[in-house]
Amino acid sequence: MGLRNLAARFGAGAASVDTVLERDVAQPGGGVGGRVVVVGGSVAQEVEEVVVALQARVEVESGDSEWREDVVFGSARVGAGFTTVPGQRTELPFSLTLPWQTPITAVGGWTLRGVHVGVVTRLVVAGAVDPGDLDGLTVAPLPVQQAVLDALASLGWRFRHADVEKGRVRGSDLPFYQELEFAPPAHVRKVGELEVTFLADPQGVEVVLEADRRGGLLTEGRDVVSRLRLSHADTDRARVAAALDRAVHELGSRRGWGW
């Protein structure tokens, strides 16, 4: 029995944990629920706590270095202080609310490469290796966010890339923010790229726009930021497109770029 206890501490024959989501698709501000299934291993073990959390993979830049790390941005304790015995199955229900500024991971059924959000489960057993569990989560855009994306497409802006960067912008609630990058339409000759960040809240969303000017090393690049406030009811694509077009032109006019 002593050898089996020792092996369980290093994961061999230890209790296993599996997270079962009710739905693997959610929206910012919405909920995700399910149950955590803990199955006893070859020996009895004392479970100190079971925690489920939302996790995002973010890009980190420091000096000339760049890497990715996983950041937890919401958690819930779903169980604590119980004993698992060999073969015993324990089910623990849970529910998490996604922050309004949770990164979008898919648009129109297409997964955004480089954007990863999931539900991670941590089983804390005294003196043992935590087996853990990670389940990917698809985060779809809110209706107003979808309206912005559709409006940009109607104006000729072409989606290029998405990422999640560690840090904050004014108005952000999380320790990271998402940037959606768009290539300009043919008639916009002096802008190399438009970056869009959504800062959603219960009342609506603030659309943060930033443009990169085309040019070489001696040409001034980053533009000042423009912000557009929309409510959750602002889902008319034509109206949103008109507002976005004005906001983007303001970026250029403040620098005298022209189009």
Q: How would you explain this protein's 3D organization?
A:
- With 259 residues, the protein is mostly beta strands.
- It folds into two domains: 13-139, Immunoglobulin-like; 143-253, no CATH class.
- Helix content is 14%, strand content 49%.
- The chain has three helices and 16 strands.
- It has helices at residues 2-9, 143-154, 237-253, and strands at residues 16-21, 25-26, 31-39, 45-62, 65-84, 89-97, 106-107, 110-111, 117-125, 133-136, 138-139, 158-166, 176-183, 191-201, 204-213, 226-231.
- The strands form five sheets. It has a five-stranded antiparallel beta sheet with strand order 12-13-14-15-16, covered by helices on one side. A four-stranded antiparallel beta sheet has the order 5-4-9-10, with no helix packed on it. A three-stranded antiparallel beta sheet has the order 1-3-6, with no helix packed on it.
- A hairpin with a 2-residue loop joins β14 (191-201) and β15.
- α2 crosses α3.
- The radius of gyration is 23 Å and the shape is elongated.
- 30% of the residues are buried.
- Mean pLDDT is 87; it is low at 1-12 and 215-221.
